[in-house]
Amino acid sequence: MREEEPRSRIPQLRLDELLAELQARIDVARGTRDRVHSLLEAVLSVGRELELTQVLRRIVEAAAVLADAKYAALGIIGPDGDTLSQFITVGLSEEEIARIGPYPTGKGLLGELIRHPHPLRLEDLKQHPASTGCPAHHPEMRTFLGLPVRVRDEVFGNIYLTDKRGAAGFDDDDESVIATLAVAAGVAIDNARLYEEAQRRQRWLTATAEINRRLLSGSSRTQVVELIAQRACDISGAELADVLTTLPGGAGLRVELALGGDVNGRVGVDVPLDGTISGAACATGFPVTSPDLTGDPRYPGCVPRFAGTGPAVAVPLGRAEGHTEGVLLLVRGSGAAEFTEREIDPLLGFADQAALALELAERRRDAEQLAVLEDRDRIARDLHDLAIQRLFATGMTLQSASRFIDHPGASDRVLRAVGDLDETIKIIRSTIFGLRVREAGAGQGLRARAVHVVEEAQAALGFAPRLSMEGLLDTDVPPAVADHLVAVLGEALSNAARHARADRVEVTLQAAGGHVALTVQDDGVGIPAQGRRSGLRNLEERARALGGTLAVTAPPAGGTVLNWTAPLGH
Predict the structure, then answer these.
(1) For the Histidine kinase/HSP90-like ATPase domain, which residue ranges apply (predicted)?
(2) Highest-pLDDT range among 33-37, 376-380, 505-509, 530-534
């Protein structure tokens, strides 16, 4: 009986082994089933998103879960094809990321997948020849798995996984699962790109329609130009925008309007055609991009005006018959993504429509100016043919009647009235002369220049300043004095727009008593006691150079009153 007992245990042991093996196979099958289920969930999760940023984030998170990796990242290859333009990580806290410093650009082991877009699996990433080590404060990493993500046969980026949890390293199953996820990720990225492009084109079309509506509603050219720049910034994600128009004779470009950054340092600046991306876009008639405007060695002329900025694109405005009307320059912040072809194509269409809008505004302004000139011509004829003749006849009648007046006081009054009529005739003739000069096309009289400066200030102030003019401004004020006065008016209105926070601005321009006086009054916050006064010093120097004066006062009711005078005989 004792010999038969060991024999009876042998089948039992074999049965236990078979059951254990069966249980192991069941666990493997269950694990495979669960992993396939997780993979399907990840594919659905990635494909469910339409926003590209969310899609990329979901891809990294799903890869980390499927491969049970402690750290995961997705590196997006830049337009140059050699570096990473974006790096999305999972597993690192915000504090750890801040301590590590800037994201990698594709050197060392990360660049190996860029140069050779094939799966790469390592037991110890430090042993690979391309490994250059980790930067300071970077967590230690050992096991590694990297696979490319392709979008329509183009390598979009790479998935990087490190430190598999609870195992010696990544295996064939991990590589197979992540490869499947990479295929689904490529489809999801392509869909997100198409959606993003459709949304962007819709926004450009909406902006174009808005510009056309503003033009048809009677908005000024300045308002339309500002709207063009603002919508271009909003849609493209740019921080700065300049609208440049061509100078006569192809001498270069001039910044007509600027948004963002140092606006005062850019508006009115002349930009050469050589040495700037704006000039290159104007000369070639095609968009010109720069990955970093500040450090771009091709265009050193841009550095002083755009220090600390990033990627930029210059788009020509109006390219009909080889002629460019101007340039739209958009600049993103430092470290931002570069402008891509997908962004530039709809932007180019928007620029063409914007150029048509500007041309329409120019033609309408010419038509309005022509109507004004025709009206001035009519007024001049009426004053000459009717008013002056009747005043002259009235003066002659009074002068002849004075001989029949015996009372000395009455006779003196009549003669003074005759003198007043004579002065009135002179004033009317001077007014007619000013109207004739404008009609002849000069358009450079002091009155016209003052009106133009006030109209230009309307966009910055947000309302139309009140303008009052008296005296023979076009005939009595010398050109040199007029130039200084126009500059002072522009600076005063600019200061009011930047600092006053006013709701009302009144401008008075008067030529009388051998002096010309400019008064600019606002109801704003006034000038702080410790505020900057460099602009006021410039105005004072202009007055002193002409033998005039500058006075800035604060009336009891609040606001600021600026009074600038200069002699007419200087």
Answers:
(1) 480-570
(2) 505-509
265 vs 34 pLDDT, higher one = 265
Going by C-beta distance under 8 Å and a sequence separation of 6 or more, which residues neighbour residue 320? none
**Averaged over 260-289, what is the pLDDT?**
83
pLDDT over 70 at 50, yes or no: no
Q: Token digits for 243?
A: 């609208």
Q: Using H for helix, E for strand and C for coil, what is the string for 258-307?
A: EECCCCCCCCCCEECCCCCHHHHHHHHCCCEEECCCCCCCCCHHHCCCCC
Tell me the pTM.
0.51
With vertex at residue 566, the alpha carbon angle to CA 563 and CA 569, rounded to the nearest 5 degrees, is 160
The dihedral over CA atoms of 81, 86, 88, 94, expressed in degrees to the nearest 10, equals 150
Report whether pLDDT(564) > 90.
Answer: yes
Query: What is the spatial distance between Cα 551 and Cα 536, in angstroms, rounded to a whole number?
Result: 10
Q: Which of 191, 192, 212, 329 is nearest to 271 (CA)?
A: 329
User: What pLDDT does residue 1 have?
Assistant: 47
Q: Give CA–CA dist 355/498, Å, rounded.
A: 29
Q: Which residue bears the tokens 């704006």?
A: 278
Dist. CA 10–CA 423, nearest whole Å: 138
CA distance linking residue 200 with residue 510, whole number of Å: 52
